[in-house]
């Protein structure tokens, strides 16, 4: 039997095991939903045992379903929801508290205090991040300070901290390895991305004992071996989900960027060996680290992307399925002036206004379902353009944009994106880019794939959407009007 690669993709809403052949063609996916716990206002937790059992279950299922012997699995790769924070006892493997999920806001006041103490610039310079509950540091500090007996155990050297990748590696290797990779470390707000090591001063500020931290490794690395699936299988690659997608899209040159359009949208551009420091509140982050060489990225997110389509479907009940949108848009009045500002939860980069809310502008008597649907999809392209313009101001270049995520099944959306951005947009045949990214890493580590350079040649066929000249001008004008509409939604509530 030819060799296989398995990617474990532990996401916010589900755990998946994705099976690839030795050339990284996707064979099958097993998936299990994950329960979300909301114990208090703004709190979001996962049960670590459910994270673990779901990962174990989907991995076993895919191996059994395809009757694969452990010796046929070249290597396992792990990708994960980033920033989510776990702390466990090394003696028992049991966590001392549930996983605090990246969305959790319980440490907002702590973050306000850090800002009041003038730590913004220092933290931004060292970690590339902005002070926010989103990142692991304040969550970890919260567990250490609020759960009885935990700090004492941590100081005695009994506890281990990790993001989800690190926790899974610990469990898969039955407590042998306490390691993470540079991309996951770069989202903790404790890792100095300039020096590539845990930052002693930040550990002091957050009052975190150094002994609980994992070793930080390259993305392609012999992380350890698991014996839980019949025999010894290598774990050869780890990367956080957005960075894994960047790798899966083969964005290995400065200026190559990927944008993932799911519920929200994450845009990450490779900025090369130089870290760019944003003046527009975007994040600098580690894109990947191969052979000790760090490559940086600039990251921005759009809060509302596919969720705007869900709003049209579930709240306005304009259609029954998101997949209908492409046909509906064909019926629109081409002269429609309708514009949507989908700032349902405030405005993100580059505006950063939590008091803005969504609005529809330019309605006329004939504005109907097709016009509103088109305006909503256009608004996601306009948000992308705003983000890209900010990144360009910060010094990033864009050669083209590679897209993935559920929304890009809609070809009208992707073509409109190309016209609006005046950039070539590439949609891969294989949209499971996150799992593919760590399959590449694992495949290289076990020798099934020769090296990073070889990945471009096995990159899968993709559809190219070139900007249509006549449409670029129209979209430019619409974008200027849309920006004025955005201004009018600011500071209202
Ligand atoms: P997530 O990983 O965040 O759950 P997915 O990548 O699965 O998201 O993408 C799902 C999102 O894409 C949903 O918000 C849905 O509304 C949107 N979507 C799915 N199909 C289409 C389509 N054909 N046109 C526009 N939006 C779509």
Mind summarizing the main beta sheet?
Answer: 7 strands, mixed
Averaged pLDDT: 94
What ligands are attached or bound here?
adenosine-5'-diphosphate
Radius of gyration: 22 Å
Number of strands: 23
CATH-defined topology of the largest domain? Nucleotidyltransferase, domain 5
**Span between N and C termini?**
62 Å
**Tally of DSSP helical segments:** 16
The number of distinct structural domains comes to: 2
User: What is the percent of helical residues?
Assistant: 25-40%
Spatial arrangement of strands, main beta sheet: 17-18-16-15-21-22-23
**What portion of residues belong to β-strands?**
15-25%
Low-confidence stretches: none
What name goes with the CATH superfamily of the largest domain? ATPase, nucleotide binding domain
CATH architecture of the largest domain: 2-Layer Sandwich
Under CATH at level 1, the class of the largest domain stands as Alpha Beta
What structural class results from the helix and strand content? alpha+beta
Label the overall shape. Answer: globular
Description:
- With 493 residues, the protein is an alpha+beta fold.
- It has two domains: 4-241, Nucleotidyltransferase, domain 5, CATH 3.30.420.40; 250-428 and 460-493, ATPase, nucleotide binding domain (Nucleotidyltransferase, domain 5, 2-Layer Sandwich), CATH 3.30.420.
- It has helices at 48-65, 108-116, 120-127, 136-146, 150-155, 164-172, 182-185, 200-205, 241-248, 306-315, 325-329, 369-393, 411-421, 433-445, 452-458, 469-489, and strands at 4-10, 14-21, 26-33, 45-46, 73-80, 86-89, 99-100, 159-162, 179-181, 191-192, 197-198, 215-217, 220-226, 233-240, 256-261, 265-272, 283-290, 293-302, 339-341, 359-361, 400-404, 425-428, 462-465.
- The strands form seven sheets. Strands 17-18-16-15-21-22-23 form a seven-stranded mixed beta sheet, with helices on both faces. Strands 3-2-1-5-14-13 form a six-stranded mixed beta sheet, sandwiched between helices. Strands 4-7 form a two-stranded antiparallel ribbon.
- The chain is globular and about 70 Å long.
- The model has no long low-confidence stretch (mean pLDDT 94).
- The chain binds adenosine-5'-diphosphate.
């Amino acid at each position: 039997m030819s060799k296989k690669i398995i990617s474990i993709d532990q996401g916010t809403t589900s755990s998946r095991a994705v099976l690839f052949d030795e050339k990284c063609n996707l064979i099958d996916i097993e998936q299990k939903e994950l329960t979300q716990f909301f114990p208090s206002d703004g709190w979001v937790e996962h049960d670590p045992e459910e994270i673990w059992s779901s990962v174990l279950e989907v991995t076993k299922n895919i191996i059994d379903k395809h009757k694969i012997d452990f010796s046929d699995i070249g290597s396992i790769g792990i990708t994960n929801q980033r920033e989510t924070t776990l702390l466990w006892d090394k003696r028992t493997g049991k966590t001392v508290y549930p996983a605090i999920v990246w969305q959790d806001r319980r440490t907002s006041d702590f973050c306000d205090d850090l800002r009041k103490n003038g730590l913004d610039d220092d933290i931004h310079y060292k970690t590339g991040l902005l002070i926010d509950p989103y990142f692991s540091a304040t969550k970890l500090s919260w567990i250490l300070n609020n759960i009885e007996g935990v700090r004492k155990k941590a100081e005695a050297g009994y506890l281990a901290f990790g993001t989800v990748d690190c926790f899974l590696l610990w469990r898969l290797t039955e407590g042998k390895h306490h390691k993470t990779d540079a991309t996951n470390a770069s989202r903790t707000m404790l890792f100095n991305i300039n020096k590539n090591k845990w930052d002693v001063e930040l550990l002091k500020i957050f009052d975190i004992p150094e002994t609980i931290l994992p070793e930080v490794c390259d993305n392609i690395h012999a992380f350890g071996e698991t014996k839980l699936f019949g025999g010894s299988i290598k774990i050869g690659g780890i990367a956080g989900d957005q960075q894994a997608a960047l790798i899966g899209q083969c964005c290995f040159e400065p200026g190559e960027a990927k944008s993932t359009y799911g519920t929200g949208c994450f845009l990450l551009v490779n900025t090369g060996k130089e870290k760019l420091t944003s003046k527009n509140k975007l994040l600098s982050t580690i894109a990947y680290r191969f052979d000790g060489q760090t490559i940086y990225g600039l990251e921005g997110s759009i809060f509302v992307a596919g969720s705007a389509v869900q709003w049209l479907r579930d709240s306005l009940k304009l259609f029954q399925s998101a997949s209908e949108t492409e046909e509906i848009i064909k019926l629109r009045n081409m002269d429609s002036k309708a514009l949507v500002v989908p700032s349902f939860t405030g405005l993100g980069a580059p505006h950063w206004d939590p008091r803005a809310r969504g609005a529809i502008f330019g309605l006329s008597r004939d504005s109907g379902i097709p016009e509103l649907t088109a305006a909503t999809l256009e608004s996601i392209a306009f948000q992308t353009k705003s983000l890209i313009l900010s990144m360009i101001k910060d010094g990033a270049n864009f050669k083209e944009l590679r897209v993935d995520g559920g929304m890009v099944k809609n070809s009208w959306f992707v073509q409109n994106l190309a016209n609006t951005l005046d950039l070539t947009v590439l949609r891969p045949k294989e949209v499971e880019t996150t799992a593919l990214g760590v399959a590449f890493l694992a495949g290289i580590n076990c020798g099934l794939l020769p090296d990073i350079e070889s990945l471009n040649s096995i990159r899968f066929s993709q559809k190219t959407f070139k900007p249509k000249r006549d449409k670029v001008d129209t979209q430019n004008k619409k974008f200027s009007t849309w920006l004025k509409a955005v201004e009018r939604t600011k500071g209202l509530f």
